[in-house]
Amino acid sequence: MAETGKLKSLALLGTGAVLGSVSTVFLYKLLSRNIQFFGVESQQKVSGSYVVVIGLGGVGSHAAAMLLRSGVGRLLLVDFDQVSVSSLNRHAVATRADVGTPKALCLKKHFSSIFPECHIDAKVLLYDASSEEEILSGHPDFVLDCIDNIDTKVALLAACVRRGLKVLCATGAGARADPTRIRVADLRESTNDPLSRAVRHRLRKDYGIEGGIPVVFSLEKPKAKLLPFTGPSGEDENPSDYQMVPGFRVRIIPVLGSIPAIFGMVMASYVVTQLAELQVQTEPIVNMDVDHYRLLHQRLTEHEESLYGTAKEVQVDVEEVMYVAKELWHGRSAWEHSAKDVGRGMWRSVNELMLVRWDREKPATVSNLVLLKFKEADEHESRTLDDIKEKEPAFFERVTSVLKRAELEFLLQLF
């Protein structure tokens, strides 16, 4: 056992040598918990990656800081704005001494004192069509959109889609207070967020982009609106008269500093796990209440009694039905690849869904139930798994993979 532990230590130290060029021991200590979590090869992928963070305010500064501390090997930090006194309540590293300095340079200075082995480039630059090539060239492994201006945000997301770049978009973090409502989902599924709604509309209208972009957003309805703009005289004035950059708002939205910080941490966690190729299943956005899950459980029981004469093979309760319907099938038929119904549409869709056994030779457990529409369920009951495998191999493989994950997740809960 002692020899095994020694070999593991040597392997980890060897990883430190790969990850940096100055101090192997220091790098090992800095990233040891990541290495223990991801494993050597996965951490090497993180450390060999290049990430671009655009927008370095309350969200972007925290996202960038945690990417740095996670060992990302190369960072490009982009923001045209300066650190202000009012931003100190939510910025990741800025101090009073940094007020008036560009946010990008502020982060680079502090980051260099934390992890000088990371290659950090900072650009005091506004993202637009003229700066696209300068910012997005170099084949970044991920782009983080932490911009709060709709025009710039839409242009960036469209450019990333056009270039085939992986991008993660942050939506509105202001005027919210509940960290438990923060989610990661496809742009099509974001709700209760005016910024998401506007971005979704503009991308569809101007670029024909329907979805396929992951976003971090809050299910919480905003607690406040933009405050009226007051000029030096104390009177309400036209905010456009004070804009340094056309199209950027100068009115203030109330912000609880911890919420944008959590947004940034969520973004960093998502990106790092993606870079490490760690499979993480994000919580689906399924707007159903407990009564809907009870209804699905009742339908399953009645179907079993009708088909088999008994419901004794139903080995799931309402809570486990909730797991199957929500976590495995995201509240929609197993035949559907993406969300079409969200919000009230999701509530209506449950009226035509039911759970049935995938393999009729096995009992109705969490790892042997699929969510199907009524007609699909009838068709499924008339076919064999061999027939499905032969004629719909992609569907067969996808369902099998999902059910295997359910089996493994529930097996882990037993220990």
Structure at a glance:
The protein has 415 residues and is an alpha/beta fold.
Could you explain the architecture of this structure?
It is a single chain. This protein is an alpha/beta fold. The protein is 45% helix and 10% strand. It has helices at 2-19, 24-38, 40-47, 60-69, 103-114, 132-136, 150-163, 194-207, 258-275, 290-308, 318-328, 344-349, 374-381, 385-391, 393-412, and strands spanning 50-54, 74-78, 119-123, 142-145, 167-170, 182-186, 214-218, 353-357, 369-373. α7 links the parallel β4 (142-145) and β5. It starts with a helix and ends with a helix. Belongs to the HesA/MoeB/ThiF family.
Which features would summarize this protein structure in a list?
2 domains; 415 residues; disordered N terminus; Rossmann fold; elongated; 9 strands
